[in-house]
Amino acid sequence: MISTRGRYALRVMVDLAELDEGNYISLKTIAERQDISLKYLERIIPSLKKAGLIEGIQGKNGGYRLCKNPKKYTVGEILRVTENDLAPVACLAKGAEKCPRKSQCRTIKMWEDYQKLTNDFFGSITLDSLCNK
Amino acid sequence: MISTRGRYALRVMVDLAELDEGNYISLKTIAERQDISLKYLERIIPSLKKAGLIEGIQGKNGGYRLCKNPKKYTVGEILRVTENDLAPVACLAKGAEKCPRKSQCRTIKMWEDYQKLTNDFFGSITLDSLCNK
DNA sequence: GAATTTCCTACCAAATCAGTAGGAAATATT
DNA sequence: AATATTTCCTACTGATTTGGTAGGAAATTC
């Protein structure tokens, strides 16, 4: 299940995309507009920056902005940052140690297919398409 | 992410399906065969019975068996028992209170589409198709 | 120098997860 | 009737995750 971490990250991305005018927008502004705790956003959003999805600058009049056009982002790449690769089961998650039962596992192929389906689905939705314009 | 609860439930169903000869199989047997704690299975598996997916009887020579042919089960109906309706986000889960932001939510349609995709995917996989035969 | 903003670390309460413990009730076998 | 086996039921527990808060350092603008 997608956590608030991932949903908040997506909301921030949508917020930035809708208000996009090329200038930096502070988390404080977004937090107020989206009614999310500023302190919590300060913990979540830097991971988007580290992943190269947004760019931010410190200091007065600082804030964040998108790196590229909203049409160029997919929901998949946003969610993968916070949701550990969108793995449906632990053994497919990034950094999982390999399962000793894999050779006899009846379900691994199904989970892999589902992970692909999930990535294809979210990979086909652009950030732009979520915006209210 | 699908928890061990759901994965164990599915493994038990596959085990029952593969060894299906119409007689009851004890959890002890399954626990040993699948290398899962008996005590833990005793907590998980009764929910499958309550949902009408398996039938069990107490007492010596008791145990569980499937109610119908493995071809007649879908993975979806099994997972829905333990995984709260396979909802991708909290607001779509069974028993969730309705979201006050729903009217302005940019993403709810996407989550609903994804939930449908998920249910269609797992609904198309039969228990039988997972078995090693 | 003051104000504002990101950045960073540590902390915290509640919930969930994964599992254990102990025994009661039901049933079959002897 | 006694015993063994099995499900059924409730309570407990330790570890991890979730969803935050707190406090302040560093960067930048005015």
Q: Reading side by side through the largest sheet of chain A, how are the strands ordered?
A: 1-2
The most extensive interface, with participating residues per chain, is: A-B, 27 and 27 residues
- Count the helices of chain A. How many? 7
Quaternary state reads homodimer
Low-confidence stretches of chain A: none
Instruction: Look at the structure and name the CATH superfamily of chain A.
Output: Winged helix-like DNA-binding domain superfamily/Winged helix DNA-binding domain
Over the alpha carbons, how many angstroms does the gyration radius of chain A reach?
17 Å
Molecular shape of chain A: elongated
How many domains make up the 3D coordinates of chain A? Answer: 1
Question: What's the β-strand tally of chain A?
Answer: 2
Assign the CATH class of chain A: Mainly Alpha
Report how far the terminal alpha carbons of chain A are from each other: 29 Å
CATH fold group of chain A: Arc Repressor Mutant, subunit A
Mean pLDDT of chain A: 96
Helical fraction of chain A equals 40-55%
**What structural category characterises the helix and strand content of chain A?**
mainly alpha
CATH architecture of chain A: Orthogonal Bundle
Helix/strand order of chain A, N-terminal first: HHHHEEHHH
Q: Determine the strand fraction of chain A and express it as a percent band.
A: 5-15%
Biggest beta sheet attributes of chain A: 2 strands, antiparallel
